[in-house]
Amino acid sequence: MTLSAGSRIGLAGAAVVGVAFGMARYAYGLTLPDIREDLGLSELVLGLVSSATFAGYLAGLLLAGRLATRHGSRAPTTVGGACGAAGAVIVTSAQAPWLLAVGVVLAGSAGGWVWAPYSDIVTRSVPLRQQPRALAIITTGTSGGLLLLGGLAVMTALGSWRLVWAGIAVAAVVAAIVNLRLVPRTRPAPRPEGQLGASSLAAALRVPGAYSVVYFAVVVIYFTYAADVVDSGTLPAAAVPALYAAIGLTGMVGVATGALAQRVGSLRVAALSLVTVAAALALLGLASDSLTATMASACIFGVGYMTGSAVLAVWTAELVPERAGAAFTACLVVGALSSVAAPAIAGAVIPGLGLGVLLVITAAVSLSSGVALLLYGSTPAAAVGGTGP
Q1: What distance in Å separates the CA atoms of residue 382 and residue 377, rounded to the nearest whole number?
Q2: 139: three-class secondary structure by DSSP
Q3: Cα–Cα 20 to 30 A to 347, which of 120, 176, 274, 339?
Q4: pLDDT by residue (tens digit) across 124-156?
């Protein structure tokens, strides 16, 4: 059986993005308690390392475009795979704080290197009709990574947290090999006359850019505090790995995002994703002492998280097909900055409000933003701007 170009690139991209985002990006938080105990690190050092992972991710985002311009869009995905593997190996063997930091930052940068370049690869190598499906498959690879991470987390109970990172290193190597085998080498794309400049690109991405600010902020709040909510209650220790696994499992529905966006419009899918994430946040904030409610929240969040992530790739490629990678990168950078600001604001208000109230307020922000986006989609301006169905 011969796979189509869209299927080959989609599967390879899903593998690489799954390891970079679903595993390497979230493994530090998952193994943090064991790292703290094993290496005897202070909260200050652990916090600095966590912040440094964002710097690595942002550096990967900004450098990927330059590398693609010189060597083609597949080059950043290869570098990202290598960073993920090398970083995970370093963390696995780290005995000193500085070595742990180097490994975590290197592994964290993988997500920045790999995600956006696939937009250019898909728009240049996959037939137009197959592009939304391929982009959705690639993004939904994060769910597969989270599912595997949840399985690897069991190793922390059976052995050592280092086994989690060793597993990530193996997965990164396998994904990199698959990527080299299935994704064609692309030449640097020449910039044609009349191509969108920076100001025109910003204008075209005004609505998805605003969506990115809210989406990434509410998602990072969930990921930052979900484990704390679970740990602070009376739930069993296995609840945290189960939470990640549930998010990954239900997030698989993100594969259908491309078809859904073609049917109802990317803007509406984005709006409904924010509404879904709002429901998950509200449930977590109001009923976190219930295992059933917590798992339901994780399942709902998985759907909203992965659909909302996948639709951003589809949406930006629809609006700016000639610069799909640059458009997606711009929204990811905006989202990354939002991801840094949101936890800082949350940390400042939690002492006064409480974590449960914060989650409910965040849910309200996500819900109101989703409704506003739906209302905007029904206006003539949305239709003229190409953001409607």
Answers
A1: 5
A2: helix
A3: 274
A4: 888 888 888 888 889 888 888 888 888 887 766
Task: State pLDDT tens for residues 281-336.
Answer: 999 988 877 888 888 999 999 999 999 998 998 899 888 888 787 888 889 889 88
What's the mean per-residue pLDDT of the chain?
85
| pTM value surpassing 0.85 | no
**Residues near 120 by beta carbon (within 8 Å), at least 6 away in sequence:** 68, 73, 186, 189, 324, 325
Cα 350 to chain center, whole Å? Answer: 25
Buried b (16+ CB within 10 A) or exposed e, 171-207: bbbebbebbeebbeebeebeeeeeebeeeebeebbeb
Backbone angles phi, psi at 73, to 5 degrees: -70, -20
Which residue in 17, 5, 7, 6 sits closest to 171, CA to CA? 17
In single-letter form, the type of residue at position 260 comes to L
Does 1-185 match 201-389 in CATH topology?
yes
Q: Which residues contact 159 (CB under 8 A, 6 or more apart)?
A: none
Amino acid at position 43, single letter: E
Q: Which CATH topology does 201-389 take?
A: Growth Hormone; Chain: A; (1.20.1250)
Asked if 113 and 74 touch (Cβ cutoff 8 Å), the reply is: no
Q: Per 3-state DSSP, what percentage of the chain is helix, strand, and coil (rounded to 5)?
A: 85, 0, 15
Q: Domain 1-185: give its CATH superfamily.
A: MFS general substrate transporter like domains (1.20.1250.20)
46 contact partners, CB below 8 Å, separation of at least 6: 32, 35, 36
Domain-wise residue ranges, the chain = 1-185, 201-389
Q: How many CA atoms lie within 13 A of 135 on its CB side?
A: 38
φ, ψ for residue 26 (rounded to 5)? -105, -5
Give the pLDDT confidence of 378-389 residue by residue, as tens digits: 776 554 444 443
Tokens 């449930």, located at residue: 283
Q: How confident is the model at residue 46 (pLDDT cuts 50, 70, 90)?
A: confident
**Distance, CA of 123 to CA of 324 (rounded, Å):** 7
The string of DSSP letters for 260-307 reads: HHHHH-HHHHHHHHHHHHHHHHHHHHH-TT-HHHHHHHHHHHHHHHHH
Q: Estimate the crossing angle of helix 5-17 against helix 131-158, to 10 degrees.
A: 30
